[in-house]
Specification:
disordered N terminus, binds zinc ion, 548 residues, 16 strands, single chain, globular, binds magnesium ion, 10-stranded mixed β-sheet
Length: 548
């Protein structure tokens, strides 16, 4: 009995093994199927999010790189990092709407990318019902990997928060700061110091204020947003973090855990960064520098890592309808992506996913009736007896150089205007600031449009950007310009847009699919060459990381 059972079992095993051999040979011929329960091929996953980096922003960078006289890419005969990635990696599209609506904000989108689960509007790390969801960063942590978050906005802002915090609303930044620390994210580099320092730190007379003033070399405004006395800087140090407030401190930070907070709220925009770049006393690191440090630090970890890098101010430029700044934010994104791509290219164990969380603003160059082209003779056969004379202005390349020439964002221009003594805050002063810092001159009368105070019914409650409840009225699509006093920037953008041959659709987000570019072993990246939703991108990334 026993021997018969044994031989039957043996026979079955032989048949099974033969069958398996044939199946696996057939499978191998079709595609390389990894044997079950093998170690995951991918050790590291890097997600780069261009906030608001839809095709309009991608197109602006591409046009600048290829056609502008001032393009360093053209001068050097090189591609943008984005194009290099597009040419060597796998491209897909992703839609990004939040649960039960058509448009997403950055919180829901980040949550969806991070967790692979649908999220409600403005939710951070929770599913649409309001339950906390485990993020790819948290899964990486559980697997014994190192983790990192880098952003040129602030650490507690929606995009980084969606990867390592769980809150009902993005506005709960004090709570988000605590979550980030509780999650022990190994490398966190961004702005947002005000959510990490105790409320007492706002008072110059306190020891904590004085000690922070010294440690930040007086370079960061010390005003706490906290409603309690928690000192998250001290708590981080107790947990073993090296804390950096300046570029120099970041460079010197050794060890596996670094918390870098380089500004009170948002980090400087691309144009502020550019103005500082050559100064030896510059104390704020660039996105590229923060990313380089994060890669160096995380790569030392024996079990691999998960890193999210956000080029977060593309979206800010688009909200402000600020085309010159948008170009510079895309250049910041691209130099950062180049650092990541150079690192990833040397390896075969890393998956890089670059995507946008949504599109913002609805930017586009558009042909128009202004500055119609001059008649031109062309050498071609069919133009022998007639001039080349298109009917419309199809937008000459030099507009790209003029956009590049912008020295200050609209936001900074308005901050400088607001800092003038009240009686000097006149349209002529605003026109002067605009004309000194952009290549598209406006008249005093046009500048006055941005300053007409009108009460507007459309504003967001409790929004920081609101500023005042009384702000200028935009001529059309006013329901889509929701950010209070920030609308002044959009009006400048609308005034300059006709000289720029630029159109803007809105001051908020739009819902069309955005690009997803991946780089890594082809058998891994092939699955991203599809039309996806951000929840699918997130789930695929999680599956790759966990080897499922
Ligand atoms: Mg963001
Ligand atoms: Zn946005």
């Amino acid at each position: 009995m026993t021997s018969m059972r044994f031989s039957l079992r043996r026979r079955n095993i032989v048949i099974l093994a033969t069958a398996l051999l044939f199946t696996s040979c057939a499978a191998l011929e079709k595609k390389q199927v990894a044997p079950v329960q093998q170690e995951p091929k991918i050790r590291n996953v890097i997600v780069m999010i261009g906030d608001g980096m839809g095709f309009p922003a991608v197109g602006l960078l591409d046009s600048y790189a290829k056609y502008a006289a001032t393009s360093p890419y053209k001068a050097a005969g090189i591609k943008t990092a984005l194009e290099e990635l597009a040419d060597t990696g796998v491209i897909g599209f992703t839609s990004h709407e939040a649960a039960n609506v058509l448009v997403t904000d950055s919180a829901a989108s980040s949550t969806q990318i991070a967790s692979g689960k649908a999220a409600g509007s403005e939710m951070i790390g929770v599913d649409e019902q309001g339950n906390p969801t485990e993020t790819i960063l948290e899964k990486a942590k559980k697997m014994g990997k190192a983790t990192g978050l880098v952003s040129d906005t602030r650490l507690t802002h929606a995009t980084p928060a969606g990867f390592a915090a769980h809150q009902t609303a993005r506005a709960k930044e004090n709570e988000i700061a605590v979550d980030l620390l509780n999650n022990d994210v190994d490398v966190m580099l961004s702005g947002g110091l005000r959510y990490f320092i105790p409320q007492e730190a706002s008072d110059e007379a306190t020891d904590i204020h004085q000690s922070l003033k010294q440690r930040t070399s007086g370079k960061i405004k010390l005003k706490s947003s906290r409603k309690d006395s928690r000192n998250l800087i001290a708590e981080a140090e107790q947990k073993g973090y090296a804390v950096a407030f300046t570029k120099q401190q970041l460079e010197q930070a050794a060890g596996k855990k670094i918390l870098g907070l380089f500004s009170s709220s948002m980090m400087p925009d691309a144009l502020q960064q550019r103005a500082e770049l050559a100064k030896p006393e510059r104390s704020t690191p660039t996105l590229k520098e923060m990313t380089g440090k994060a890669l160096d630090t995380l790569a030392k970890h024996q079990n691999g890592f998960f890193l999210m890098v956000e080029a977060g101010q593309i979206d800010q430029a688009e909200h402000a309808n600020d085309a010159g700044r948008l170009l510079h934010e895309m250049l910041v994104m691209d130099e950062t992506l180049q650092v990541i791509l150079n690192w990833v290219k040397q390896r075969n164990d890393t998956l890089l996913i670059v995507l946008a969380d949504h599109n913002t603003g609805g930017f586009g160059f558009s042909y128009n009736r202004r500055n119609l082209p001059e008649k031109k003779e062309l050498p071609g056969l069919l133009f022998k007896n007639e001039p080349f004379e298109p009917e419309f202005n199809f937008v000459p390349h030099d507009v790209l150089d003029k956009l590049y020439a912008q020295k200050m964002s609209y936001q900074t221009i308005l901050e400088q205007f607001d800092a003038l003594p009240k009686k000097k805050q006149k349209p002529a002063a605003l026109a002067k600031l605009i004309n000194e810092n952009t290549a598209f001159p406006v008249t005093e009368k046009e500048a006055a449009r941005a300053l007409q105070e009108e009460r507007n019914a459309y504003y967001i409650k409790d929004h920081e950007a609101l500023g005042s409840k009384s702000f200028p009225k935009i001529d059309d699509f006013e329901e889509f310009y929701v950010y209070g006093a920030g609308v002044r920037a959009d009006i400048i953008g609308r005034i300059q847009s006709k000289f720029q041959s630029v159109v803007w659709a809105t001051g908020t987000h739009t819902n069309e699919p955005v690009p997803v570019l991946t780089y890594g072993p082809r058998e891994i990246t092939a699955q991203f060459g599809q039309m996806m939703h951000t929840t699918e991108v997130g789930q695929k990334a999680i599956n790759v990381l966990t080897g499922n």
